[in-house]
């Protein structure tokens, strides 16, 4: 099995990237999760994970969304970046984003 060269690395911008992405979700958490702006944030999150960690396919992103809203430390941390309810909102946005098939 080929080792991912990104695994275990901490990018100096890691925290600021999380704050930017989840702060974005928090800033629009009263919007509809299927809005264009919300869906662009889901794509931005997917791209961020791919760039900094591993290839984040929609199946993986969907699982992330479930973890975000699961009430664990993920939820607390995400809500600390974007305000109470951000993790749950991000989960709903990601669900919708992942349900849309890739364009051929």
List segments where confidence is low: pLDDT < 50 over at least 5 consecutive residues: none
Structural class: mainly alpha
Q: Percent range for helical residues?
A: 55-70%
What does the overall shape look like? globular
Total number of helices: 5
Strand content: under 5%
Number of strands: 0
Distance between the termini: 29 Å
Radius of gyration over C-alpha positions, nearest whole angstrom:
13 Å
Structure description:
This protein is mainly α and 104 residues long. It has a domain at 34-99. Helix content is 63%, strand content 0%. The protein contains five helices and no strands. The protein has helices spanning 14-27, 36-52, 58-68, 73-82, 86-99. Helix 1 (14-27) packs antiparallel against helix 2, helix 1 crosses helix 5 and helix 3 runs antiparallel to helix 5 (86-99). The termini are far apart. The model has no long low-confidence stretch (mean pLDDT 87).
């Amino acid at each position: 099995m080929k080792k991912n060269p990104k695994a275990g690395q901490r990018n100096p911008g890691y925290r600021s990237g999380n704050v930017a992405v989840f702060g974005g979700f928090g800033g629009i958490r009263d919007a509809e999760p299927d809005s264009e702006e919300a869906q662009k944030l889901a794509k931005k999150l997917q791209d961020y994970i791919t760039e900094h960690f591993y290839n984040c396919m929609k199946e993986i992103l969907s699982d992330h969304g479930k973890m975000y809203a699961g009430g664990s430390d993920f939820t607390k941390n995400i809500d600390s970046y974007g305000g109470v309810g951000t993790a749950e909102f991000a989960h709903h946005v990601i669900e919708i984003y992942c349900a849309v098939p890739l364009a051929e």
